[in-house]
């Protein structure tokens, strides 16, 4: 889906981007498109190559092959011009532990344009650290360091924020505040690209996402569309469950059907929302016409987790990320 060009087109664009370390391919021919003015999730299990891709975007490591652009600037050729408009947090943020949170931001602001000093208090307020900004960073928890890392990104007043696992170490209240902060930044017209292995957070905060597995993008698009493309399930309480299994197995929308306790668990193929509702109605009608009583039929709820498990190696391993 093409982005609204009034929002600036693509904030991040890569073409066949590849990074190899000896015989190991960490990023494998990645074609990534991040629409400007959105929250975009780069979603994958640990070890999928997310951090390596971010390091290439920031010019911290050179690609083996392929090309990339940030805010229209080719990287690394115009890296300096691009990074003037980018705030980034790659891996765990590091600070001078003997200084306070506010003092650390002053050190970073001093290396930027003069206006950066005037953004410190607003940045601390936005990430929820203003009351703790006078404490030494040595006393900060992991979550507080993550917040301070985001505040440091905001000193540049960036058009694009690139955040690597920003919810690490945050408690539930901190995660909720983080979601609100991301949405507020997007509402201002900024683009936020965050890498994460947390499906729930990406689903709740992001407009679009790419799912990466073993260095390759295996699915990409609006979160709602990614979720809708996943496998769907119907839970059906029906009389004559054994006979019902053979009846529903012949339905063209049914991928598999099993007996689960007092109900049938019916797996549908990847279909659109409207087709799911039509399939559910058709299955219900098929059972009734076969002379069975249907006591309950639960419509499926699409989730990003279903899509993630469908397209990554986690399904084969039987491990939920």
Structure description:
The chain has about 325 residues and is an alpha/beta fold. It is elongated. The longest helix has 17 residues, at about 275-290. The protein has helices spanning about 50-55, 80-85, 100-110, 120-125, 140-155, 170-185, 200-205, 225-230, 240-250, 275-290, 305-310, 315; strands spanning about 10-20, 25-30, 35, 40-45, 65-70, 75, 85-90, 160-165, 190-195, 210-215, 215-220, 230-240, 255-260, 265-270, 295-300. The protein contains twelve helices and 15 strands. The relative contact order is 0.13. Residues about 1-5 and about 315-320 have low confidence and may be disordered.
Brief overview:
By secondary structure, the protein is α/β, with parallel strands linked by helices. The chain is 35% helix and 28% strand.
Structural class computed from helices and strand pairing: alpha/beta
The profile of the biggest β sheet is: 6 strands, mixed
State the low-pLDDT regions, or none.
1-7, 315-321
Order the strands across the largest sheet as they lie in space.
Answer: 7-8-9-4-10-11
- The overall pLDDT average reads 86
Overall geometry comes to elongated
Helical content (DSSP H or I, runs of 4+) = 25-40%
Q: State the total count of DSSP E strands.
A: 15
Which percent range describes the beta-strand content?
25-35%
Number of distinct helices: 12
**How far is the N terminus from the C terminus?**
27 Å
Radius of gyration: 23 Å
- SSE run: EEEEHEEHEHHHEHEHEEHEHEEHEHH
Key features of this structure:
six-stranded mixed sheet; elongated; 321 residues; 35% helix; 15 strands
